[in-house]
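Lab notebook, bench 4. Still working through the backlog of constructs that have no structural model yet. Next entry is a single chain of 728 residues. Request: give me the structure tokens for it.
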Amino acid sequence: MAQISPLISSFASGEWSPRLFGRVDVAKYFSGAEELKNILVDQYGGAFRRPGSMFAIETLDSSKKSRLLSFQFSKIQAYIIETGDQYMRFFKDNGSILETAKNITAATNANPAVITSAAHGYSNGDVVYITGVGGMTQINGRFFTVAGVAANTFQLSGINSTAFGTYTSGGTVSRVYKISTPYLEADLFKIQNAQSADIMYLCHNSYAPRKMTRTGHTSWTLTEIEFTNGPYLDTNTTATTITPSADSGTGITLTASTSIFQAGHVGSLWKIKNGYVKIVGYTSGTVVTADVKQALGTGPAAVTDWAEGAWSAVRGYPACVTFYGQRLWFAATTHQPQTLWGSKVAAFETFTPGVDDADPITVTILSEQVNAIKWLSPQNKLIIGTQGGDFDLSSGSFGEPVTPTNVTINGGTTYGSADVLPKRIGSFIYYMQRNTRTVRELSYDVNIDNRQAYDMTLLAEHITESGIVEIDYSQSPNNVLWCVRNDGQMATLTRQVDQEVIAWTRQVTDGLYESVAIIPAVDPTYDEIWTIVKRTINGQTKRYVEYFTAPDFTDQEDCHFVDCGLVYDGAAATLMRPLNHLEAKTVQILVDGAVAPDQVVASGQLTLVNSGEKVRIGLGFQSKITTLRQEGGSVTGTSQGKNKRIYEIVIRFHKTLGCKVGNKTQQDVVPFRTGAMDMDAPPSIYSGDKTIQPPGGYDQDGQICIIQDQPLPLGVLAIFPKVSVGEK
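Model written out:
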């Protein structure tokens, strides 16, 4: 019988693929794990329970998918945008942006409830937030859908208030601010965007490019861009002529000698001799109407000197957009999937052809096969991800700006990219390979004087097995990629190059993650991670906008480890409402830092056993750390395949309370309360070593399982097991 003491000093290699469970010869084996569920690895290799999430609002239409976008004007002015089927709504400071509040003067007990607010101006289908109502308090702090609109009254759709309290006085109602968009549900996840200050440009192959402008919290506009003089396809070289009915003016007629026009050309720009027009009406293949944007100089004559606009419903619109070298770049229409268009320098919507240094640029990637451009990412060069590999665009000379006469495109790696926007962390670009499963880290390698695209999923190929649909990243407190999987789980990668941390973990919840977006929090120590989660609530499909809370905490009462939760601060009451968004769900409860019994939400409320000043309520989730099989050698070599018993474990905890430790089938609760503690208060959060005699006997695995399923924190810095190993 041999005694070994293997060391697990970090989890810097993250959750390993089952295909690698036999690779005990690899050094990274000793910092890997079989399972890291609802765990995040920090930049030093410690494993910590992910924070819980807060409920923000139900999406406007839970029957359809929505997507989150981020809009960052500055470190203190950043927004999350809920982008749904033909609408956008906005979030800031952990809440919905609301319009100016209106006074409520009456609330009628009825089915549905009726609210009186003079000249409210609301429409059926609007979402409103109500607070401050006296008497009928059941409607306070809740969002409602407006129905049955009249001049001074409206109904709360689906809300039977006949058993609610009787209205006495006061209250205000505020509409959730939204704007209309043309984007349909099926197209949301292919929208690409680029932002400069208060303007965001949006692209999609099926829609003319648009720009969104913010002039205030409740002042956003989304408009189709009026481009100046281009871009165009190549100038006509055929005998086909176009005859304008006038050199200038609106509503002129263009008559072509052959059938060149289509209905989808409406809205496109066409160059004709010395000027250009915008087509505004279609009559036939040879006749359209147009508005002259710049005098044509043709007189009444037919001309062959014309060029069709590069972008239209006929040719397709750009799929990609970014800023680089003081230009706004677009790329990849259906007709020209390998072409890029750069605007005039510092004039982002101008494409007047020319050869001066500041003039617009049109360039096409020349390769052996058609490789549609999937994304653009600016660095010291413009990196271009295509279906067949990556390229870079530059002037070809270090320090020289790109101009129409020196633009150069060079090839790089040949892995190919998927239709998922990449993210840049420092000088690295993280993108999805064409198979939507391999995450690659694109960087310059001085040894080969070219780019390398390292496989970040090499040790965890299983982590993306269902494919990735969207990624974003948080920089603070750690560099973490958040990757939404097709199956509704979230794969998370902690990457710290200096410390050689490449740690994948998985995030799961009582529902399915469908979108993620991240903005900096007002508190500079962490970023806000926002998600859309599809949940089943009281037998109905609901889609909720939620955000994860701060990853660290000072006071025990502030630790938040429930999902889709709410916080009641200073409540000092036993009756908790509203919890309608969790109707009929079993919820976990933390009262002033102490775990209270689970309860089921009924009629949007529950009654606490004990009152508290700060109460956190939400859906429970399990965090789990399962080590790989212990390996430490024995008198006959490896300990693999031999009977083992872990008879003692020392775990170095950080800010932990209430977990269980054992093997994969049996765990014991770790005692954190001591005789010196106040028995009328919860035990304190603990940091330090705990010596544990785990349950279980001999087996051939020798694995350690740590579980946290209470609404409490868990942090594991290192594990020091003592193991008896048999000879066979």
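Notes after review: The first strand starts at residue 2 and ends at 4. The chain has a mean pLDDT of 94. Flag for follow-up if needed.
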